[in-house]
Write a structure and sequence with these properties.
This protein is an alpha/beta fold and about 350 residues long. Helix content is about 40%, strand content about 20%.
Length: about 350
């Protein structure tokens, strides 16, 4: 089988070419007819050939080795660790908006179990090499997958390093710093809401270091559950903030509900600046200002890393910068962002 497979991949038969008949293959490969049948079926499952009934077996027009990518995560919609960041990846994949030159197949809920369909698919891809590359979302589960321990296939890790993988990371330090500078431009009394202690403390240190009096700062460690009530209490006060930084966009919707309960709306006298995952900002039509990472840019940099790996070239760490709306290198789709996009762009 390997000989015929390599002949197809090497281009001996051009895409769309009809392969020799079973009788000819029996003679060329010196094997029995059932073996030829198993060989052709394996090549079909790998995506290298297509069977068109009576006319015979033809080389596929496109090979998954050249155009099919796999995006793998240990999470899945509805799980505790599923985030809007992951949801944005999945949404772009579902709508064919990744910008990658081929097909991106999501593998959700990777956990290392033999009976997990996503794991079975990943192991088969690693066995056959039938992919142009793997995009791996970092987690403890993905890091420990035995199937990924061997150095095989081009792969890129997103957010944090993984063995044998190139790396695309997010510059969250820059995001926090730029957000704090924006808050200081607009606010006298500033609140920072975050489910992540590290980001919360980083913002607190930066704001105080740049001269914000401690009594004018409220740094709140809050999760999505409870954020609505915390926001209502925060804005029911006489000394309520006039600028708020939300370091995680999973807090935006409960924060907006809390503002509504407190009868306060974002506007000229209240800046709400939220982390976001472009091109799917949450709360754009509600007056929220955004600073975040463009997932389309993540895909583009991952593509560059995979191309370098396939050419055998070193792949440097690539860093995605935080961007405000006016700094995006690709326009937003108004239909995906709601009617608020046109209003924001007119301001």
């Amino acid at each position: 089988m390997q000989g015929l497979r390599e002949q197809i991949l090497s281009g001996r038969w051009a895409p769309g070419t009809r392969l020799p008949t079973y009788d000819v293959l029996e003679q060329e490969l010196k094997v029995a007819r059932p073996t030829v049948a198993r060989l052709i079926n394996a090549l079909r499952e790998e995506g290298l050939v297509t069977i068109k009934g009576a006319p015979g077996v033809f080389v596929a027009d496109y090979f998954p080795h050249h155009y099919r990518y796999y995006w793998a995560t240990s999470e899945q919609p509805g799980s505790r660790e599923w985030t809007s960041f992951l949801a944005t990846f999945l949404d772009l994949i579902a709508h064919g908006q990744t910008g990658m030159p081929g097909e991106v197949v999501p593998l959700l809920g990777i956990d290392g179990r033999a009976n997990n369909p996503a794991d079975q698919c990943l192991r088969e891809v690693l066995r056959t090499g039938a992919t142009a590359g793997l995009l791996l979302m970092n987690s403890a589960t993905v890091y420990q997958l035995p199937a990924l321990e061997a150095k095989a296939l081009s792969r890129v890790a997103i957010c944090a390093a993984l063995p044998h993988a190139a790396l695309v990371s997010l510059d969250f330090d820059e995001l926090v710093e730029r957000a704090c500078m924006r808050l200081l431009e607009k606010g006298q009394r500033i609140a920072v809401l975050s489910p992540h202690a590290g980001n919360l403390h980083a913002a607190e240190r930066l704001l105080l270091a740049r001269g914000l009096p401690e009594h004018r700062l409220r740094a709140l460690h809050v999760a999505p559950v409870g954020c609505e009530r915390v926001t209502q209490l925060l804005f029911d006060r006489a000394d309520r903030p006039d600028a708020v930084f939300v370091t995680d966009d999973n807090l935006v919707e409960p924060l907006l509900r809390g503002l509504q309960r407190a009868k306060v709306a974002p506007g000229s006298d209240l800046l709400i600046l939220a982390h976001c995952n472009w091109p799917r900002p949450i709360g754009l039509s509600d007056g929220v200002e955004h600073l975040g990472f463009d997932v389309r840019e993540v895909f583009a940099l991952a593509q560059a890393c995979l191309d370098e790996q396939r050419r055998g070239e070193p792949s440097p760490v690539r860093v995605v910068r935080a961007r405000f709306l006016g700094e995006l290198t690709q326009a937003l789709d108004p239909t995906a962002c709601g009617a608020g996009l046109a209003e924001v762009q007119r301001r």
